[in-house]
């Protein structure tokens, strides 16, 4: 009875969140304020409403639940793969860029409370998605959360395509640089932790410019993650490259000058100035 009171939508905003959860997640919230909290960025909490909790604590919880759900999914999906492959696949699926992509594909910004300008690239949508997973876990339990998350992943990502990226990205990038006479460097630094808890961050520098970053529990994993990040960055820049190559094209109009004649425009070439 008490839980049903929490689930009732009392205003248009609450009704919108509830309808979105039904449509996108396939669930009806039992504790609607919990989901609203998950969708509330700290920038939306005004000074005179400090009683409204933001989503940072739920984001912390959702991050842990997401790791467990994806770890479980990959463990079942790839029974013959080793720890290194599984770790790299999980890193790709839970990376900030992937979470932002997924958050935007499910249009989480329609129900978010945030005062961060949406025209700017930020991690706010991905963070809200993690917080939403935390709220879902508290409201529905792990098994239901796992089903919802796995369904979203399969609906919006192609695991086969992500799996193809697992090929030795570092070697491919070094080979790419060698063919194009570009200097490719991997710079790895240890961020913290001890023993199996160590955490590494890697950068890919192409001609001294940082073109990709990655992280992982080992230097090798961090380097591979950084290599894939560099490939994604270069692919995203491809549409702009032909413009710089074709910019000298106007000089090709010179041969057309003899086609212009006095008969065409009533002007002699010497009168054009």
Secondary-structure blueprint:
Elements: H1 2-7, H2 12-25, H3 32-38, H4 56-77, H5 83-93, H6 96-105, H7 124-140, H8 142-156, H9 159-164, H10 169-179, E1 184-192, E2 199-206, E3 209-216, H11 219-237, H12 241-246, H13 262-265
Helix pairs in contact: 3-7, 4-5, 4-7, 4-8, 6-7, 7-8
Q: Give the low-pLDDT segments.
A: 1-7, 238-273
Number of domains: 2
Query: What is the tally of beta strands?
Result: 3
Structural class: mainly alpha
Number of helical regions: 13
Amino-to-carboxy terminus distance: 88 Å
Mean pLDDT: 80
CATH class of the largest domain: Mainly Alpha
Radius of gyration: 26 Å
Q: How much β-strand is present in the residues?
A: 5-15%
Largest sheet: 3 strands, antiparallel
What pattern of helices and strands is seen along the backbone? HHHHHHHHHHEEEHHH
